[in-house]
Amino acid sequence: MALSIVPPHADHLRLDPVAPRLAPVFCFALLTLSCALASFALACATPFAAFAVVAAGMLPLRNAQLVIAGAWLVNQGIGFGALHYPVDGNTIAWGLVIGAAALLSTAAASAVLRMLPRRRTPLMLAVTLIAAYAAYEIALLAATPFLGGEDAFTAAVVARLGLTSAAWLAGLVAACEIVRLFDPFGRRGAMSA
Fold this sequence. Notes:
193 residues
């Protein structure tokens, strides 16, 4: 019986620009920085579905959800602290719904990635983003009877936000590929040792 040094979740890893031991820290840094940029640029339209795909592509589900929760906290901190969101029950409730939707989106992305082949392809990432974005939007839509905001779910708005998520995903994947190419954390050396 051969022993494997590959971690049990390695077959679920799709984006692996750094050594597996560094993946949680790298993913957290990448997504919290991205979330901060998106929060200032897009406010309430932070592309959590794109973040969910990247987190699920790098990490096992539990770690991916912890990273997404961290990114959500950054988003809420910027929203309430720097962008001066109103501190009222409805805004806080929407913030919690967004957090839950982001976690659901991460679970959807992880489930899709487990069903797809190990090899990363643009089609695989697109399918995963569609599932993650659908889960995210459905979760938000489900809250509208209680919190209002139905008018934000027009086809034009949902399509625009979906395209924004696709653009962010492309940028995040490009960042991962650049890190993989330059190998600043010694991934190739660690893999051959």
